[in-house]
Design a protein that fits this description.
globular, 291 residues, 7 strands, 13 helices, 12% strand, alpha/beta, 7-stranded mixed beta sheet
């Protein structure tokens, strides 16, 4: 997916939000804003939003010296999400189709995203509310068919906190899974320590992708990750950032995410032509490269 011109103000908003989170003095915030303003004209619209976003956060790190500004929020997200684990597991257990319910719960967990929201939602309320959101695209039959024959499953994690609900989907699948997290800090995306903190490392083979993009930029990923990606016969991709970076990749990918901005809605509409048309706030379960 390309970077739309409408993405440019969002990059500036992300920088301002990060400065507020760090409680930077006005003069440092002004320095960050000035640098981002210099950066924006040089961003490539041919690259994905996560590619360009990485450059913005590199500027913030250079100016502030803070490598992981969302560290405390990630820990808090994991703890809050873990409090919902038993409730969500009960919903899955009592469902007539546990895998379908686990997908819905994993999708609802994608609301925990501090890169796309201007304010940080309270997780319990946001998660429970998002359970009532509809799917614009729901290719569950394709997913189930691919899952049935899959022998090498690669699961691409997205955010801290959210990975608690990914754990529930993986437990429900009951197949060996390789779980990939980010290799370096970026926004509130999950790292190895987040996976360990929520216990998901005990049920998967845990790897990282070797990069700090808020998505999966394959050409920048480590060789071990690319090998896992290329050998997988089912890739479960969580989150909007992974969609933005992988939607044009030819691979057996099933993508689960919430549409959080008009540009992603537009892209989903052009790819899958849902009827009625896609709306911001809806979920997507879409399979591409899957026979």
């Amino acid at each position: 997916m390309i970077t739309y011109l409408e993405c440019m103000p969002c990059f500036l908003q992300q920088a301002l939000k990060c400065c507020a989170l760090l409680k930077l003095p006005p003069e440092t915030t002004k320095q960050v804003v000035d640098q981002v303003a210099i950066r924006i004209p040089h961003l490539s619209i041919e690259k994905s939003p996560p590619w360009n976003s990485r450059l913005i956060y590199d500027d913030i790190q250079t100016i502030t010296g803070v490598k992981d500004p969302f560290l405390a929020i990630k820990k808090q997200s994991n703890l809050q999400a873990l409090k919902l684990y038993d409730m969500a597991k009960k919903q899955i257990y009592e469902s007539p189709d546990p895998i379908q319910m686990a997908i819905r719960i994993a999708a609802a967990g994608n609301v925990i995203d501090y890169g796309t929201y201007r304010t940080i939602p309270e997780i319990t309320t946001a998660f429970k509310d998002s359970l009532n959101h509809s799917f614009s695209v729901f290719q569950y039959t394709l997913f189930a068919q691919q899952l049935k024959g899959a022998k090498k499953i690669l699961y691409l994690a997205d955010n801290a906190g959210e990975i608690v609900f990914d754990r529930l989907l993986i437990e429900t699948i009951q197949k060996p899974v390789v779980l990939a997290v980010r290799g370096l800090p970026i926004i509130n995306d999950a790292l190895r320590q987040d996976a360990i903190d929520v216990g998901i490392d005990r049920i998967v083979t845990l790897i990282d992708n070797g990069t700090g993009y808020p998505g999966t930029v394959l050409e920048e990923c480590s060789e071990p990750f690319r090998n896992a990606f290329e050998s997988a016969d089912l890739i479960i991709s969580k989150g909007q950032g992974n969609f933005e970076t992988l939607c044009n990749v030819d691979a057996p990918i099933c993508m689960i995410f919430m549409m959080k901005c008009p540009q992603v809605v537009q892209h989903v509409q052009s790819m899958f032509a849902p009827d009625p048309p896609a709306r911001q706030g809806q979920f997507v379960l879409a399979c591409k490269g899957v026979l």
